[in-house]
Design a protein that fits this description.
Blueprint lengths: L1 H17 L3 H21 L4 H23 L12 E2 L17 E4 L6 E6 H10 L9 H4 L3 H8 L4 E7 L10 E10 L9 E8 L2 E8 L8 H23 L5 H27 L4 H15 L3
Antiparallel strand pairs: 1-2, 2-3, 3-7, 4-5, 5-6, 6-7
């Protein structure tokens, strides 16, 4: 009799241990939808039908994320989030963003993306071609993480790091000032990015810098000189019959060096500017609120 009771308990335990977690169910549904979309594309299914199928799945995934994350209440952001995934079609340019919910009012307003440690780690491991570290703590310190996780079809370029005090209750808090771009050179629309890890949650805030980051004539001159140098090499490249590859390489060298020199100039000038303490305070306030303070 005791042996039967023991075997029954073992069977129940094994069944519970093998049951899929909400996170695993979410990943399974997402991956199944991605595979189905690829199959429908190969079968020349009308795009309207593919989009309709994906909209239904995204709504289901959004609900599952909400159940996993629970209530999110960060002052300054809406309490209802929208799934951060833009598409389930692997051929779309904005495919493969971080699994989570995004809280924002409109396109230009501050946004907050919230995920879990598990989903973030899975995401880092799922896209080895991105060449990102698999540890969340390391990834959050790289501009490329933000570009790939929340940037869709743009990249993030850091102007400088903003030193934070880690809020009570948070495991990690990092911040940087920079901008979204599709090109090299000055980004005048500067934003503050803050990444915070609190328990099982990974939170990323993106907000316009307040006050607006000033322009410095010294730094504009650095970029103007570099751009003029690049344009000289561009002229040589396009005027040469064989389109001289040395000239082509020299264009990129001039632009990349000019961009690096411009950013160094901005960091040097900005740290001494009267606006800098307010930018630090904005980043710290975001981190504190994201940590529930």
């Amino acid at each position: 009799m005791m042996r039967l009771l023991w075997m029954s308990a073992l069977v129940l335990w094994a069944g519970a241990a093998s049951a899929a977690s909400p996170e695993q169910d979410y990943i399974a549904l997402r991956d199944k939808a991605i595979a189905r979309t690829a199959a429908m594309e190969r079968a020349k299914t009308p795009i309207e039908q593919i989009d309709a199928e994906n909209e239904k799945t995204l709504a289901d995934l959004e609900k599952r994320l909400g159940d996993m994350l629970g209530p999110i209440a960060v002052k300054g952001f809406p309490q209802k989030g929208k799934i951060a995934l833009e598409t389930l079609n692997a051929s779309d340019i904005d495919f493969g963003m971080l699994d989570g919910l995004r809280y924002f009012s409109d396109h230009d307003s501050p946004s907050l993306t919230v995920s879990t440690r598990g989903l973030t780690t899975r995401w880092l491991r799922s896209y080895p071609n991105l060449r990102l570290p698999v540890r969340i703590e390391d990834a959050l310190k790289l501009d490329k993480f933000y570009a790939d996780a929340i940037g869709s079809d743009v990249t993030f370029s850091k102007t400088l790091d903003l030193a934070l005090e880690t809020p009570g209750g948070a495991d990690l808090a990092v911040a940087r000032l920079g901008g979204w771009t599709q090109d090299v050179g000055p980004i005048y629309d500067q934003r503050i990015i803050v990444g915070v890890v609190v328990g099982d949650r990974v939170l990323i805030a993106d907000a316009p810098a307040v006050p607006a980051v000033p322009r410095f004539s010294e730094c504009d001159a650095v970029w103007a000189a570099a751009n003029a140098e690049a344009e000289k090499h561009r002229t040589v490249y396009f005027d040469s019959k064989l389109q001289n590859q040395r000239a082509y390489a020299a264009v990129n060298v001039a632009w990349n060096k000019g961009n690096a020199d411009y950013l160094a100039c901005m960091a040097r000038n900005l740290r001494a500017d009267p606006s800098f303490p307010a930018l630090l305070a904005q980043a710290q306030s975001l981190a504190d609120r994201m940590a529930g303070r």
